[in-house]
UniProtKB/TrEMBL annotation:
<dbReference type="Pfam" id="PF04172">
    <property type="entry name" value="LrgB"/>
</dbReference>
<keyword id="KW-0812">Transmembrane</keyword>
<protein>
    <recommendedName>
        <fullName>LrgB family protein</fullName>
    </recommendedName>
</protein>
<keyword id="KW-0472">Membrane</keyword>
<feature type="transmembrane region" description="Helical">
    <location>
        <begin position="39"/>
        <end position="57"/>
    </location>
</feature>
<keyword id="KW-1133">Transmembrane helix</keyword>
<dbReference type="InterPro" id="IPR007300">
    <property type="entry name" value="CidB/LrgB"/>
</dbReference>
C-alpha cells in the first residue's frame, strides 16, 4: 500500500502501522527500526487514550 501511495517517510509508515494494525503493526515496525517502533508504540497508546475519552461521548 505504501508503494502504491508513494509514501516513503518512515515516521508516517510507523504511525499508519501503529494506528491501523495495532500490535502486529507495532511488532513489524520494531523489526524495521528503532524509530519506527517507537512511533508505532506511541501511536497505539494515543489511539487507546482517545478511544477511552471519546467512546463515552458517542
Amino acid at each position: 500500500m505504501y508503494k502504491i501511495l508513494k509514501i516513503n517517510d518512515k515516521v508516517a509508515m510507523a504511525i499508519a502501522m501503529g494506528s491501523g494494525l495495532h500490535a502486529v503493526g507495532t511488532a513489524k515496525a520494531m523489526e524495521i527500526g528503532e524509530t519506527e517502533g517507537a512511533m508505532s508504540s506511541l501511536t497505539i497508546a494515543i489511539s487507546g487514550i482517545m478511544t477511552v475519552l471519546i467512546a463515552p461521548i458517542l
